[in-house]
Amino acid sequence: QVQLVESGGGLVQAGGSLRLSCAASGRIFRINAMGWYRQPPGKQRELVALITNTGNTNYADSVQGRFTISGDNAKNTVFLQMNSLKPEDTAVYYCNAEAKSTVWDVWNHYWGQGTQVTVSS
In the 3-class helix/strand/coil scheme, how is the chain assigned residue by residue? Predict the structure, then answer.
């Protein structure tokens, strides 16, 4: 099993910045990609940003140019630098990893417990 632990959420004023971190641990054979999703109040969970183990990235249109995802493959860690935050960025942010615990496994998706980000106007 793979465990994900997030940190870095909090309350910030509009225009401010926050940096989220997520570390994967446990029985990890390989991680294919890690990413961040968010779930605003009363809405569905949505992709924010994704990074593959080769460094390819993908962003939601709503955060392009404001958020930057990065990773440290050696430490199985992913970061999300969030700048120019807006009230509509308020959500619970979840870390996700597509990983295998052994060479024989299929790729599984694992989730962190979530961290609250609140942006005040």
Answer: CEEEEEECCEEEECCCCEEEEEEEEECCCEEEEEEEEEECCCCCCEEEEEEECCCCEEECCCCCCCEEEEEEHHHCEEEEEECCCCHHHCEEEEEEEEEECCCCCCCEEEECCCEEEEEEC
